[in-house]
Amino acid sequence: MTDVDMDWLLMAQQSLRSLDLDPIAIAALDRPSIRTRSWTDGGLSTEHFQDFLASCAGDLATQGILTGAKLTSLAVRRQLTDAASTHLALFAVPRNAPRLVALVRVEPEDELSRALFLLEKRCVRDERLEMTSALCEATAAAALLRDETLGETIFVSQAAFQQQGLNGPFLGLTCLARGADDAIDRLVHISRCDPERVKCHEQIGPFWLTCLSRRLGENNLIQAAARFGLTRAEQAEAESMLAGLSCKESAARLKISPETVRQRRKVIYRKLGVESCGMAVARILEIELPAPILDDSAIVGVPQGLPTARVPANASMMGSGLGRVIQ
């Protein structure tokens, strides 16, 4: 943990204690892992705090403060010697895109809105990092951002975590899955030692951005496979469809018969609720279409030509690197 990190966490502790609140654990959520960006008073391990945050990430991001009966996690209370007499509160600051979380002991009558205000003032903001993360998530780019001077990975996109088999939960810029640290290490190794998988590597201000996705569809396919229940064989065929391959071309690529390809495509169409290759690609790329059709007898119109993914108008703000990745 750097001196800056320690100073930042100490300031958050002091802010809470100035309001007579007793902090148990604090974590920064402006990095992909809380491994070196957290503090506890010794009554709660970092691993259990991480698991606890993972269990209530959705409610926390929505509500901002969780108190009382909502904080009944045994993973937390087992480690607190005074659990029976302790009232707990959990803060997310700011609420919808938290950069900090704090678990504190409180009294039922404590006023907690003032604590939120003070903690938000203590949050360190990096506008360049926030812009990078927002654009990567908006374009589904599998990317990581590193400060090579410090040897630190400061951002990993959700799509990059998903390539490593981690689907969250996520809070702020942090993946709260137990395997997050190992996934980050693997991604760094790929960025350094597997040039065939690196689609762009260039400097963004003081940082280095490494993108591991060739185009938007690669990452959307991972999400579509999970959403629609595609098997590995069907996912491989969907890759051929995204590449614009015919049944014969896909059969040659996958070393199977064209008839097998046609049968797999029929199954893919049924699962996605469409009736053509073009609409299947559109569904995978999350182009705006009607909801999937559950009735096999329903007829869906076939669009003219192959649809292309829409990229946010401000994607060029990231510079040429990300722009090439999503083309």
Question: Which H/E pattern describes the elements?
Answer: HEEHHEHEEHHEEHEEHEEHHHHHH
Would you tell me the structural class of the helices and strands?
alpha+beta
Give the tally of structural domains: 3
The CATH fourth-level homologous superfamily of the largest domain: GAF domain
Average pLDDT for all residues: 75
Could you describe the largest sheet, including whether it forms a barrel?
A: 5 strands, antiparallel
Instruction: Enumerate the strands of the largest sheet in spatial order, edge to edge or round the barrel.
Output: 2-1-5-4-3
CATH class of the largest domain: Alpha Beta
Distance between the termini: 38 Å
Strand percentage lies at: 15-25%
Number of helices: 14
Q: How many DSSP-defined strands?
A: 11
User: How would you describe the shape?
Assistant: elongated
Helix content class: 40-55%
Low-confidence segments, ≥5 residues, pLDDT <50?
287-327
Radius of gyration: 23 Å
- CATH architectural type of the largest domain: 2-Layer Sandwich
